[in-house]
Specification:
By secondary structure, this protein is mainly alpha-helical. The protein is 49% helix and 8% strand. It is built from five helices and two strands, in the order αααββαα. The protein has a two-stranded antiparallel sheet with strand order 1-2.
């Protein structure tokens, strides 16, 4: 685990996730998704130069995951209610037909993209295969 609950509440200043147990579950999902998004560029968690930025990204993604999971479990907020016909409408951010897992990934991707796109970690470019020799990432 690269970001723990004490980092989340102290350094990051997070307040959305109420307990260390909930944070652990959300941070594991966040780290797995970050690894998935950055796998073509190596091990992001080995980048010691940007360790705090990566931890902040894990915390932000964990918050997004936790909020999405909570909204899915609660079913959204009540938008309108009719007592006679027993009709209740909910406000949800999920798209029609979107699974809970896809919704959580979409929420995490929004915060991950903002933080990691400028660093190059989300790049999908294919390199030349001899980066160690020429230092070039763009030649084919």
């Amino acid at each position: 685990m690269h970001a723990d609950y004490s980092y989340y509440t102290g350094e990051y200043g997070g307040t959305v996730i109420p307990s260390g147990e909930d944070f652990l579950r959300a941070a594991r999902e966040a780290e797995a998704y970050i690894r998935y998004l950055t796998c073509l560029n190596g091990d992001i968690f080995a980048d010691t130069a940007r360790a705090d930025a990566i931890k902040d990204t894990v915390c932000a993604a964990a918050e997004a995951y936790h909020a999405a999971a909570r909204e899915t479990a609660e079913g959204g907020n009540i938008k309108s209610e009719s007592k006679d016909g027993l009709s209740v409408s909910f406000v949800v951010a999920r798209k029609d037909g979107e699974t809970a897992d896809d919704y959580a990934k979409r929420c995490m991707y929004r915060v991950i993209r903002i933080r990691l796109l400028p660093t190059g970690w989300l790049s999908r470019k294919a390199g030349c295969g001899h980066v160690h020799e020429c230092g070039c990432r763009d030649c084919l």
